[in-house]
Amino acid sequence: MKLADRFRKNRNTQNKKKRGLGFHSLREEFTLLFFVLMAGMVLVIYLANSFFLERFYVRNKQQALENAYKSINAAAKANEITSDAFDVELLQITSRDSIGCIIMSDESRTMKCYAQDPGTMLRRMWDNLLYDEESGQVAAPSNASSEASTEASKESAAASTGPVAEDSDTRYQVVKAMTTSTNQRLQLVLDTRTNSQSMEMWGILGDGSFYLLRTAIESITNDTRIANQFILYVGILAIIGGVFIAMALGNRISRPIRALSDISQRMKQLDFSARYEGKDRNEIGELGENINNLSSTLEQTISELKTANNQLQRDLQKKEQVESFQREFISNVTHELKTPIALIQGYAEGLQDSVADDEESRRFYTEVIIDEANKMNQMVLKLLALTHLEFGQTDVTIEHFDVVEMIHSYLSSAGLLAKDKDVTVNVPDVPPILVWSDRFLTEEVFQNYYSNALNHVEGDKVIDIRFTKKENAVRVSVFNTGKPIPEDSIDRIWEKFYKVDKARTRAYGGSGVGLSIVKAIMDLLHQHYGVINYDNGVEFWFELDTSNREDAPKELPENREPVKSEET
Q1: pTM over 0.70
Q2: How far apart (Å, rounded) are the C-alpha atoms in residues 145 and 141?
Q3: Which of 31, 164, 274, 494 could make an S-S bridge to 263, C-beta 3.0–4.6 Å?
């Protein structure tokens, strides 16, 4: 069987499997997605129009009445109701929002009336003033109000062009009563004769006069139904047209993708003769070109060459690093050992030449020799430890331990050092803090920070140990009062043999290696560390992981990159 025939047979078999697993082509998915989106948009518009259009319309009418009330009330408080300027403003308000307005003095005299039907406005004013909420009916007017009501009825009859309808207390019914944000009465009123609704706002103005604002609520229920029908018709047509467009677009998009899929299937059968022949100038065309290039590339050979090249680069870089460390180590050791060797040699020659005749002088000479030899020994030990750390020759054992207990244990054993220098060490009383780290290396970091603080403490002679919890970590800080580190030295204090104050460092026997050991340990543990300057002292800090991992590794990977120190 030819390779092409075998490919066609395999492709047919795979297509059958895909169909059996519910496989859908990109064209079908694109068409279905477009249909769902179009139908969803039409449905959202239909529902929004049905449920919210009428509420929006009523709310808009209410806002118009409230705005009109605010303008009228402001004019009433300023005693400008009867002014010509307010007449123009009131005419604009009522005309713009189709609002009827009547203002009546506390003596039942009509002061302003702007409405298409003044008689109805006047009747509604009296209905609202005489309405009894407990009985739900218009109350019988008193003598004074009866006369005013009679006079108002005459004015109403004179103003009305048609015959007077039935009693307003039976014709108009309050459908819903509300209160506005300004404590005014707002109500929806049904005209039982015409079956139409109006919105009324009435109450007392700032000058004691009465007002009534009234606007018709057009029946938009029927309009909403008509709009929904139109939306449905247009939406159905848009969906049908969109489906055909989506099918055409889906076919245009899926055709080159199907071709690429066939090529990938042939490549799977080790047939690299297939080529993508499409002329698309887009991402699909770029993908086809990449597949063509991929089929003619010896990927495995290139991968092996890159692996070998990367390994060679790492070996060369490591070799250069080792040589650099060696040169730097020899130079620094030679420089640091010159002074103690010269002192030992000088005092030894003095003893040999009997310069010190008395017992006290000989004791002084021998003490100097012993002290300098001890400093040399300590420096050599630290250099060896630092070299092991930098070259990754130190075993790292990650364990779960209480860092608070570790620090308290070290401070109790080193308490005499602080007592001899009259230094106050403050340690907060905090609950146990469990961390994941190497206990020995962590104690070495804290020891170097604490020794450095003792050697540089000044002023109040206070050392503060602080614990700051962070997300999945804890920061341990050692602060000592004294002079801050100069800005030009703060970036170099982590270098080997660097000393800010060489004379003072020489006085307490420092070698300039302690902070370098801290840097090497924290880089090995892949944790953060740093220093912060204050006006009255210096704070050194380091962080440890506190995440509760049951599967915590026992050793750190050898290829971890060091974490740079953070300095402020």
Answers
A1: no
A2: 5
A3: 274
